Amino acid sequence: MRRFLDFFIAFKEYVALTAFVAVSLTMIAVSRTTDVMPLRAFATGLVGAIQSTYAWIPNPIALARENRDLESQSIELAAEVGRLRRAEAENRELRRLLGIAPHPDWKLVAAEVVGKTTTFQRNMLTIDLGSKDSIVPGMAVITDAGLVGRIYATSQNFSLVQMLLNTDLRIASKIARTRVEGIITWEGGPSLSMRNIPKALDVQLGDLVVSSEYSSFFPAEVPIGTVDSIAPEANSLFRRVMVRPSVNFFRVEHVYVIQKDITKERERLALEGRVNEGKAQKR
């Protein structure tokens, strides 16, 4: 404080001159008299000319603020581009799914894959449909490419799908061209194995493999894959037929659940058959 007073006393003439000039300019700026109007116009023109001359000099504060605004807009635009690309990919996938020509008895319900395991012996998908959507274990799950698996377990809002890439799953299948029947299993590799194919039956590379009418869980004629290789089994009358899956399980994002539980239908038919057989024996 003492230093400030010493500075004020030492330069009191300059401080007073500055104060008087400031007061004079303020009075000129707010005055409405005609005498000062030319002076105000001259001062305005002079200030404008000075500003125009030195307008090319960058303002660091304004530049910093503008850079922050541009960076924020760039981040928002990048996020929007990402959302649009994801939406485009989802639309293409959904258009392919809508191209499925379902069986008249099938009621297809679209679901999104929200979880996936593809590195174990018992691989599963998690989808965003559950018991509140009338999903029950045993229902088949497909895409536009073919068979994915079956519903294994459900909660209220989600379901586990047992994929074809699961060592516990067995599927009654057949060659679409020749109706040769076999059992589809998975042994841990990239391909499925079609077992119980006698050497004498007609199976060729590229043949389409579909689900059979004898399947306990899956409706018939759903594509499973194509024959990828054929090799004789040593000391056996059967051949080892490998099938490349129609579905790319590593990239599947959307599926359809067939809301038709054929397991219960088969159980009911089997029960009716046993009841009718018992009645026939009593007769």
Describe the protein in words:
It is a single chain. This protein is 37% helix and 28% strand. It folds into two domains: 2-53, no CATH class; 107-271, Beta Barrel (Thrombin, subunit H), CATH 2.40.10. It has a six-stranded antiparallel barrel with strand order 1-2-5-4-3-12. A six-stranded antiparallel β-barrel has the order 6-7-8-11-10-9. By secondary structure, it is of the alpha+beta class. A hairpin with a 5-residue loop joins strand 1 and strand 2 (122-127).
Order of SSEs: HHHHEEEEEEEEEEEEH
Q: What shape does the CA trace take?
A: rod-shaped
| Biggest sheet overview | 6 strands, antiparallel, barrel
Number of domains: 2
- Widest beta sheet: strand line-up: 1-2-5-4-3-12
Classify the fold: give the CATH topology of the largest domain.
Answer: Thrombin, subunit H
Count helical runs.
5
Unreliable parts = 270-283
Strand content: 25-35%
Q: Under the CATH scheme, which architecture of the largest domain would be assigned?
A: Beta Barrel
Mean pLDDT metric = 79
Percent helix: 25-40%
Structural class of the secondary structure composition?
alpha+beta
What top-tier CATH class of the largest domain fits best?
Mainly Beta
Output the radius of gyration.
Answer: 40 Å
Write out the CATH superfamily name of the largest domain. Rod shape-determining protein MreC, domain 1
Determine the N-to-C terminus distance. Answer: 123 Å
Top keywords for this entry?
283 residues, alpha+beta, Thrombin, subunit H, 2 domains, six-stranded antiparallel barrel, six-stranded antiparallel β-barrel, 12 strands
